[in-house]
Amino acid sequence: MKYRESSLEKSDKFSEVAHSLEEASRRIGVSPIKREDGIVLSALSYYIGSLGGRVFIDAGAGIGYSTLWILHGLSSLAPRGKLVLYAVERDPLRRKILEENIEKVRKEIIEESSQIEIRAVNEDAVDFLEKVEPQIDMVFVDIEKRQYKEVLRILPGKLSKIGIGIFHNVLVPGLDGDTKEFLEQQEQLSYHLAPTSLGLLVVKRLN
Question: Which three-class secondary structure state does DSSP give residue 88?
Answer without folding.
Answer: strand
